[in-house]
Amino acid sequence: MSPSVPLQEMIRAIRSARTQCEERGVIQRECAAIRAQFRQSDNGGRSHNLAKLLYVHMLGYPAHFGQMECVRMIASPRYSEKRVGYLGAMMLLDEKQDASLLITNSIKNDLSHSNQYVQSLALCTLACMGSAEMCRDLAPEIDRLLQSSNSYIKKKAALCAVHIVRKVQDLGELFVPAARSLLSEKNHGVLHGAVVLITQLCERNPETLKRFRKTVPDLVQIMKGLIISGYSPEHDVSGISDPFLQVRILRLLRILGRNSESASDAMNDLLAQVATNTDSTKTVGNAVLYETVLTVLDIKSESGLRVLAVNILGRFLLNSDRNIRYIAMTSLQKIVGTDHNAVQRHRGTIVDCLKDQDASVKRRALELSLALVSASNIRSMIKELLLFLSSCPPELKAQATSGIFIAAERYAPSKRWHIDTILHVLTTAGGDVRDETVPNLIHLITNASELHCYTVHKLYRALLTDISQQSLVQVACWCIGEYGDLLLKGECQETEPVQVSEDDVLDALETVLQSHMSSSATRGFALTATMKLSTRITDNVDRIRSIVSIYGSCIDVELQQRAVEYNALFKKYDHMRAAVLERMPLIEKNNSGNTNGEATRETLTETNSSKVAQEERVPPPPQQPAKQTYDLLDLLGGASEPLQQSPAAQTLPIITSSSAGGDLLDLLGGLEPTPAPVTPAPSATVYEKDGVTLTLSCEQQSDSSLAVTLTATNASQSDISGFTLQAAVPKSVQLNMNAPSRDSLPAQGAAQLTQLVMLNNPNKVNLKMRIRISYTRQGSAFQDMVQVDSLPGLGAAGHT
């Protein structure tokens, strides 16, 4: 290929290459020829060669050797060379390149050029790649051009000023007078640039925002002119007059009216006029209406206007475009807390969106449906959500089950309805519920004494139907172990009478024990239930004894330990078996305000102990309490001689440090140690910025190990997704980060994220921690870092 071939021939040769290697060969030969011609001082085809090099750059190949040629061509007096030179500068240079500083003087000269198109080239280049230093040097020139009589130049200068304000916030005051005067222009391009510039100025300086609130009447007048103006082919888009300018003005009005009664009052009539007169059959009209709704909901608008805005979002839900439905539900989700009744009117449409084929629309509809549940509609809404749960995608089941549990616990009309709802969820999606669901349901069943017979019959039938749902099987085994006598009587008025024999119940539990689908925890529930039935039935105690003895040699250590302890109760301590296996008393939660998914660590510790062992806490028989204690300790190979007790200690509960002994001692309520008051772990807020708060709490595990809990909340008005925490410690300290509780933070502190960090400090060095915070908000990625110089409880809080 000849070095002098035109750009079109080079493109044709590159596209005709059959392999990537052949393409690289063509480009390398052409780049070598371009370099050679760049070295010639009397090169007549400079713009031609640079244009070819820019095409090579667009294909992803290195073209940095053309940077200096861009600088030389920008300084050329010929417009054709300036145009290619400025284009090359915008593509090949950025503020990090030293060569960009060389064009500052050329740009300054061209900003004063008599040709408006040369001035336009300089303005576009500065707005595209101007560094902070260039912006400071050329800002006075841009301010001068903002006052030019040429609308074409003023439009370009306004957009260039926007870039300068973004780069150097302090220069914003320079453009305030000119920006305000631009609002009197008739040219739509100039108005558009002026509105964008004022928006940037107001977002970055609260004082400037107060000054521009005086321009609200001018903006309202401009907006009214756009609405009532006749057909203009230059600005009309699908019957809407300049929708781009309308959207920009509405965004600026939203900023100016926020937290301002007077400014909001001045724009209420305009917003009502836009909301009622804009055509919603076209995408362009929907864009204007959406910005109008956002403005109405963000300012201090009238209640009637807010209802109108919610109704517009309701119409969006009926739109065939899924994108419009999605943004409508996103907006309704943000206001459901403040305008709950207005959103409730569209409940039926929102529930219908659960049937949409698009996964993102389904997710938004689920979140909004859960937010709409109240005491008045709990039955109908849960019915719809349960119907959705039976066919929802696997990735939404965990969110759906958690939301149903929370709503049911908060608004349940009766305990029976509450139990039925949770059992329905466990039957449908038992594998997707959270770990705390089982102990919470056990607590609910225990406290509903009038429903024990009904619940055990229903769970028994569910157990016979399906043993694949582990959570359901665990609760069923627990109920059968506790209330097996009620099941065998068959006298339940609330269900159809079913005659159940002892062999039938034991067969069901043995099926769970032998099933390959049963987890270790589920087998533990079934084995404990089998053991408890030994005090509730009379004819099959020997069969129970044989079932328990089989698992004394089980490969599962937890199951083996249970079986060994239960065998000891049969053989050596049969006289204690009835007391040990008594029915559970009422369970009291540590915090009555806890709900599913919101249990505190102390509550989970209490309920998980019930889940794992199901041991009973009842007072021991009054005769020989000390002797029985020694007998129990002897089961586990404890001390051979009696414990030496002082007279005072004889009246106190006995405390043992043996983990195995603790399991058996936990069976006896009279031997349970008195819990010490729980001292909350020391905590400190180490990060607080843009509504995101990070709290750090520490708990000493041993002399060298420390458990650090990171808790993050979001108090801002917008949701946060992709929230991640990364931690670094000194090299001699070992760090292990557990998985976070969630990866998103809803707005207004609706939920919090927790993450446990385990630190091992064998060398006892001064503990420091550096935490990196990353998240995405409204499509923009944010990243920040915090330095914790000393951990709470060990020293002062961290510093950012």
Automatic annotation (TrEMBL):
SMART domains reported for this sequence: Alpha_adaptinC2
Classification via Gene3D superfamilies:
2.60.40.1230, Leucine-rich Repeat Variant (1.25.10.10)
Q: Which gene encodes it?
A: AP1G2
Q: What is the official name of this protein in its record? A: AP-1 complex subunit gamma
Ranges of biased composition (kind: Polar residues): 589-598
Look up the record and give one Gene Ontology term from the biological process aspect. intracellular protein transport
Q: Which InterPro entries does its entry note?
A: Adaptor_Complx_Large_Subunit (IPR050840), AP1_complex_gsu (IPR017107), ARM-like (IPR011989), ARM-type_fold (IPR016024), Clathrin/coatomer_adapt-like_N (IPR002553), Clathrin_a/b/g-adaptin_app_Ig (IPR008152), Clathrin_app_Ig-like_sf (IPR013041), GAE_dom (IPR008153)
> Which organism encodes this protein?
Oryzias latipes (Japanese rice fish)
Query: Where in the cell?
Result: Cytoplasmic vesicle membrane; Endomembrane system; Golgi apparatus
Keywords assigned by UniProt, alphabetized: Cytoplasmic vesicle, Golgi apparatus, Membrane, Protein transport, Transport
Give the record's family classification. Belongs to the adaptor complexes large subunit family.
Q: Which GO terms describe its cellular component?
A: AP-1 adaptor complex
Source domain of life is: Eukaryota
Question: What's the protein's topology in the membrane?
Answer: Peripheral membrane protein
- Among the Pfam families in the record, one is Alpha_adaptinC2
Q: Where is this region: Disordered?
A: 589-628
GO MF = clathrin adaptor activity
